[in-house]
Amino acid sequence: MTLTVWVDDWQMQCCGEDFAPGDVVSWQLLEADPEDYADVVGEDLAAGIDFHEEHHGGGEGAPTALEVLTVNEVHCRLAVTAGSAERMHRPVPGSTVLVAAEKADGWAKERPGVRFSGYLVTARRVADPP
């Protein structure tokens, strides 16, 4: 059975370890709430995200050993929401661009009009941690 895991760009940039398809990783997984990712990846893809990787605390239990099967960079456009009192940039629904990646290191090649936000990783559980 495969799992889909969201990995934040900032988590990788801060202190994440590079990974690629075929690697076995040991990650702390937290259940994902599709609403948290709908604006970034769209409702359909968000509904398929099972977990998000967390290595800055907040999770309980032992890390999960996973074999990485695929890695996709997620890019989307950011803008200030019209009518919002906040001047924060938010993901623009429907602007998602997925790019298959050979390696995840927290950084991605710039794409016109969109910003790198994270990775969608397809993986399967393995019996023994790396």
State Rg.
15 Å
Order of helices and strands: EHEEHHEEEEEE
Number of helices: 3
The largest sheet is: 7 strands, mixed
**Counted beta strands:** 9
Oligomer: single chain
Q: Which structural class do you get from the secondary structure elements?
A: mainly beta
Measured as a percent range, the helix fraction is: 10-25%
Span between N and C termini?
Answer: 19 Å
**Which segments are poorly predicted (pLDDT under 50) over 5 or more consecutive residues?**
none
* Overall average pLDDT: 90
Q: Strand portion, in percent?
A: 35-45%
Blueprint (SSEs and pairs):
Elements: E1 2-8, H1 9-15, E2 24-27, E3 29-31, H2 38-41, H3 43-47, E4 51-53, E5 64-76, E6 78-80, E7 89-91, E8 97-100, E9 115-125
Parallel strand pairs: 1-4
Antiparallel strand pairs: 1-9, 2-5, 3-4, 5-8, 5-9, 6-7
